[in-house]
């Protein structure tokens, strides 16, 4: 079963998943706030004195149920968010070809911080533009998909990164057609 979820995380449409999450949690938050407001409307003043005189507050079972409902919705949204970040980290580490178990575990504890570190690591090391694999050493091709990572300066034969616009050795402007 875990294998199935791993596959889903790799294949998921990240943009869609994030947008769906934002819309749903936003709608849930607005909806419940509206219900809460209409329920407690007219008794706001009592809430303001809640800290001092909470015993005088006239809470019905319905009020408590509403608050509990909000709490549950909040927890569900929180867990959903956590899992979404977890899926992002798993997917990113899978694409990068680094230890997925380690990074997913890190995300389970540090959540967004783990994702940020992972992206930073990818940025520093550089990744294959085709498959996302972390580049190893100064290899000319990606060792997973065979994508060309380096090009040669036509003037001085210096090996350059595929995205270079100018040669770092002789300063020649590189024609995009040659890359
Ligand atoms: Zn690649
Ligand atoms: Zn050159």
How large is the radius of gyration?
26 Å
- Find the structural class using helix and strand composition: mainly alpha
Ligand roster:
zinc ion
Number of helices: 7
Global shape: elongated
Q: What profile does the largest beta sheet have?
A: 2 strands, antiparallel
Which percent bin holds the helix content? 55-70%
Q: What's the order of the H and E elements?
A: HHHHHHHEE
Mean pLDDT: 86
| Beta-strand residue fraction | under 5%
Distance N terminus to C terminus? 44 Å
Let me know the number of strands.
2
The largest sheet has its strands arranged as 1-2
Uncertain segments are none
Overview of this structure, please?
- With 179 residues, the chain is mostly helical.
- The chain has a two-stranded antiparallel ribbon with strand order 1-2.
- The chain has helices spanning 2-11, 14-40, 44-48, 50-53, 61-96, 100-110, 112-125; strands at 150-152, 159-161.
- Helix 1 (2-11) packs across helix 5 (61-96) and helix 5 runs parallel beside helix 7 (112-125).
- The chain has a domain at 2-125.
- The site of one zinc ion has 8 residues, from loops.
- The site of one zinc ion (ZN) has 8 residues, from loops.
Topology:
Blueprint: H1 2-11, H2 14-40, H3 44-48, H4 50-53, H5 61-96, H6 100-110, H7 112-125, E1 150-152, E2 159-161
Antiparallel strand pairs: 1-2
Bound molecules: zinc ion (2 copies).
């Amino acid at each position: 079963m875990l294998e199935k979820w791993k596959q889903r995380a790799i294949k998921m449409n990240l943009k869609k998943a994030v947008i769906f999450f934002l819309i749903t949690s936003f709608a849930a938050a607005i909806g419940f706030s509206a219900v809460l407001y209409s329920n407690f409307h007219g008794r706001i003043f009592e809430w303001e004195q809640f800290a001092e005189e909470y015993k005088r507050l006239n809470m019905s079972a319905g009020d408590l149920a509403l608050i509990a409902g909000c709490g549950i919705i909040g927890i569900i949204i929180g867990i959903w968010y956590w899992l979404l970040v977890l899926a992002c980290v798993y997917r990113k580490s899978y694409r990068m070809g680094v230890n997925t178990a380690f990074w997913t575990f890190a995300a389970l504890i540090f959540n967004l911080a783990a994702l940020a570190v992972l992206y930073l690591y990818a940025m520093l090391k550089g990744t294959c533009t085709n498959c996302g694999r972390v580049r190893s050493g100064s290899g000319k091709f990606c060792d997973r998909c065979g994508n060309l990572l380096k090009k040669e300066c036509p003037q001085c034969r210096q090996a350059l990164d595929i995205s270079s616009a100018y040669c770092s050795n002789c300063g020649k402007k590189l024609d995009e057609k040659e890359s």
